[in-house]
Amino acid sequence: MRLILPILLAAVAVAAQGQSVATPEAIAALPDRPGKAGVVQACSGCHQPDIVLGLKRDAPAWRELVDQMIARGAPVDEARYEEIIAYLAQAS
Question: b/e per residue, 25-59, with b = 16+ CB within 10 A?
Fold first, then answer.
């Protein structure tokens, strides 16, 4: 737990500053298709893309998880919401 807390606090601090914790290489490795920009914008402030895409979920499960992240402050653009869900479900 000692190691996890500082990492989480650092991720929150970076996200609060609008910066990405995801490396440019990790972002570039994401499949290019509709929704990528929304996923990068909404998720990379706190998560590495390979971690997000490593979660195997269907669209309803992604919708539930994305809704939880929105409740925690994830910057999900309402206009991109459905595109993000589709992108994540297709990657799973």
Answer: ebbeebeeeebbbbbbbbbbbbbbbeebbeeebee
Quote the number of domains for the chain. 1
**pLDDT at residue number 60:** 98
pLDDT digits (tens, 9 = 90+) for 44-78: 989 998 887 888 899 999 999 999 999 999 999 99
Q: Mind spelling out the 3-state secondary structure of 71-86?
A: HCCCCCCHHHHHHHHH
Q: Which pairs from 37-41 meet CB under 8 Å and 24+ separation?
A: 37/80, 38/76, 38/77, 38/80, 38/81, 38/83, 38/84, 38/87, 39/84, 39/87, 39/88, 41/75, 41/77, 41/80
